[in-house]
């Protein structure tokens, strides 16, 4: 999320037309087309953040600037040439790194929160804990995971929460 993404589409000799069909999960179909004989492009229902990477007569790649969760979905490039039609299909998955929040509850127990990540993060503790993480889904597709440290022994002075996520791992330590 927040980065640009470029999806390639292979050019063919004797190409007459190219169409990008974008079906994001929000359901609004976007279509971008290029006709080689007229050197003309057209866009229907596409946001300003979706466009050709360069001029389509030179490169058929699609660029999505500042990718958001709503951009997740199917992206299909169809190249029409004299020797046939050629399809390339992508499924864009948007990763949202969670915010790691580590605090102490009212009883002096460490609480680790991996807030609003996509997909849900995994939480573990450096010292063994019998905590069962709780997940809370949000309307925008992100998930918050909460884990409370419960020590097997007493007198735990310092503990570390580790958040594992495809967008990157994080860790923090706390003394409660």
Automatic annotation (TrEMBL):
A Pfam short name: V-set
PROSITE patterns per UniProt: IG_LIKE (PS50835)
Family: Belongs to the CD200R family.
PANTHER family: CELL SURFACE GLYCOPROTEIN CD200 RECEPTOR 2, CELL SURFACE GLYCOPROTEIN OX2 RECEPTOR PRECURSOR
Location (main, coarse): membrane
Subcellular location: Membrane
Keywords: Disulfide bond, Glycoprotein, Membrane, Receptor, Transmembrane, Transmembrane helix
GO CC annotations, alphabetized: external side of plasma membrane
SUPFAM superfamilies xref list: Immunoglobulin (SSF48726)
Entry's Gene Ontology molecular function annotations: signaling receptor activity
Domain Ig-like: 1-93
GO BP of this protein: regulation of neuroinflammatory response
Protein name: MOR1B protein
Membrane-topology descriptor: Single-pass membrane protein
Species of origin: Centropus bengalensis (lesser coucal)
